[in-house]
């Protein structure tokens, strides 16, 4: 039997023409507009690095003065304490960080030592083994699972003969790729400059190519004879000047953020911060609770800029949900300092929803790392609800064990929505209660006041009478003053 499409088509039409007609017909059907996060994800995937292009310089001492690009890497870590599983989990996390930055991981090595070697981080013998592994795999980068001192970085590069970076530089590179807002870019740049300032070094004659006075020498003048300001000193001075400007800019942006917080306080809107380990599902949970449509990606540090959205508790009270930057083990202190204004969103909130990856191999380690950073940001004493996420992927026995271990916790799945109503009930019960209890008979002409009580207060009893709406509720002092004229005994 011949289809209607084939009957109307000319005999000499090609397969390409038929495919073109079908494409045109398909475009006639309406397509839902993509969310902001979907468009951001498409842009990010379109900017992935192209594999196969070498980034290694002839002179490896120039690595601090060029844009960091990773391709084929070998990972190396030092196991100083704990179990071998802890060391392997740390190296596995470094592998995920490397892949998020756009690298291809070829091999991973672990060295057992009581403490990292002061000269080469992994010891002289392991350096030779690392050099052989680099040659065998054709790697152009070595990433160390720790923060290297300038001397360790220099010694490793001289012996391995390829670019060497540490965990801190890797995380900073990821942040530089993913920062979008003006404040986020400024914070990342400040953290990068703080990290690279003590690691600047010159090469060749550039260390002292500038001369003081009239080119130095005997005719240089009193007090100005000598080599003058060296190139590396000039670089450091420019970096410090740039860092001072970035701090002033971030302080100015902090003022705008605090103004918004004060506006929410005046309106008596409780605030809830979503915190947790990176890639635990914080943005997915925000989308599930508020329909925010922010970017979601199965990668570490996919979103950096905080996002605040309105939400409603089961009893009708309005509150705000803020998605914050994710945390990680050994989070660089430069990032904690640079993102302090962002972390203040957590410290100034009324409640913290701590999201944990229930399918992770070490969820207890993630909880400890997050609580450590929260305490450093001044949010360690805030009320906390632990949301054990990814219930659709995790082992039910492990979820039950974790829920028993962690008090005030709930198992949820941001992907399927399981457990989200229970989480909202816990949030509604944990929100701060309004201070003033009022009884009022509000005329029907002032329905706006009744709406405000339902939106910002906690209604205890409501009754509709012939004279108006009789209310008994708990409200904030400002709304209580507006209801004074209608108060009843």
Automatic annotation (TrEMBL):
Domain of life: Bacteria
One Pfam family this sequence matches: GTP-bdg_N
CDD domains the UniProt entry points to: HflX
Keyword terms of this UniProt record: Cytoplasm, GTP-binding, Magnesium, Metal-binding, Nucleotide-binding
Places the protein is found: Cytoplasm
Residue stretches making up the Hflx-type G domain: 270-435
Oligomeric form and interacting partners: Monomer. Associates with the 50S ribosomal subunit.
Family label: Belongs to the TRAFAC class OBG-HflX-like GTPase superfamily. HflX GTPase family.
Biological function: GTPase that associates with the 50S ribosomal subunit and may have a role during protein synthesis or ribosome biogenesis.
Cited HAMAP family: GTPase_HflX
Protein name as it appears in the record: GTPase HflX
Lineage per the UniProt record: Bacteria, Bacillati, Actinomycetota, Actinomycetes, Propionibacteriales
């Amino acid at each position: 039997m011949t289809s209607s499409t084939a009957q109307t088509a000319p005999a000499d039409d090609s397969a390409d023409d038929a495919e073109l007609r079908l494409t045109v017909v398909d475009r006639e059907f309406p397509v839902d507009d993509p969310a902001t996060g979907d468009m951001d994800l498409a842009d990010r995937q379109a900017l992935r690095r192209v594999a196969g292009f070498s980034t290694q310089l002839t002179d490896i001492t120039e690595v601090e003065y060029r844009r960091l690009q990773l391709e084929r890497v070998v990972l190396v870590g030092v196991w100083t304490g704990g179990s071998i599983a802890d060391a392997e989990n740390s190296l596995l996390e470094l592998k995920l960080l490397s892949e998020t930055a756009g690298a291809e991981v070829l091999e991973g090595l672990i060295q057992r030592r009581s403490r990292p070697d002061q000269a080469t981080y992994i010891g002289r013998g392991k350096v030779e083994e690392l050099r052989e592994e680099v040659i065998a795999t054709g790697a152009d980068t070595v990433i160390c699972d720790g923060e290297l001192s300038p001397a360790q970085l220099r010694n490793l590069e001289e012996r391995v003969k390829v670019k060497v970076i540490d965990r801190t530089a890797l995380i900073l590179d990821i942040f530089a790729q993913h920062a979008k807002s003006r404040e986020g870019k400024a914070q990342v740049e400040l953290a990068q400059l703080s990290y690279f300032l003590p690691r600047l070094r010159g090469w060749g004659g550039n260390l002292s190519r500038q001369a003081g006075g009239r080119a130095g020498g005997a005719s240089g003048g009193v007090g100005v004879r000598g080599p003058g300001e060296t190139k590396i000193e000039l670089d450091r001075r420019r970096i410090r000047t740039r860092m001072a400007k970035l701090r002033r800019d971030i302080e100015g942006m902090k003022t705008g953020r605090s103004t918004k917080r004060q506006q929410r306080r005046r309106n008596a809107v409780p605030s809830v911060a979503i915190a947790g380990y990176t890639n635990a599902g914080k943005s997915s949970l925000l989308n599930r609770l508020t329909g925010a449509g922010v970017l979601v990606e199965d990668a570490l540090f996919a979103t950096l800029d905080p996002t605040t959205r309105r939400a409603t508790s089961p009893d009708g009270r309005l509150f705000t949900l803020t998605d914050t930057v994710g945390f990680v083990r050994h989070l660089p202190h430069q990032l904690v300092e640079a993102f302090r204004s962002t972390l203040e969103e957590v410290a100034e909130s009324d409640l913290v929803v701590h999201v944990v990856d229930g399918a992770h191999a070490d969820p207890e380690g993630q909880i400890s790392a997050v609580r450590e950073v929260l305490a450093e940001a001044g949010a360690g004493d805030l009320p906390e609800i632990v949301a054990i996420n990814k219930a659709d992927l995790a082992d039910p026995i492990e979820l039950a064990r974790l829920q028993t271990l962690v008090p005030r916790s709930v198992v949820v799945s941001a992907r399927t929505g399981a457990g989200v109503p229970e989480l909202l009930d816990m949030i509604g019960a944990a929100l701060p209660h309004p201070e003033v209890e009022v009884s009022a008979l509000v005329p029907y002409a002032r329905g706006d006041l009744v709406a405000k009580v339902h939106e910002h207060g906690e209604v205890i009893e409501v009754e509709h009478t012939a004279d108006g709406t009789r209310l008994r509720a708990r409200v904030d002092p400002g709304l209580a003053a507006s209801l004074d004229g209608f108060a009843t005994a």
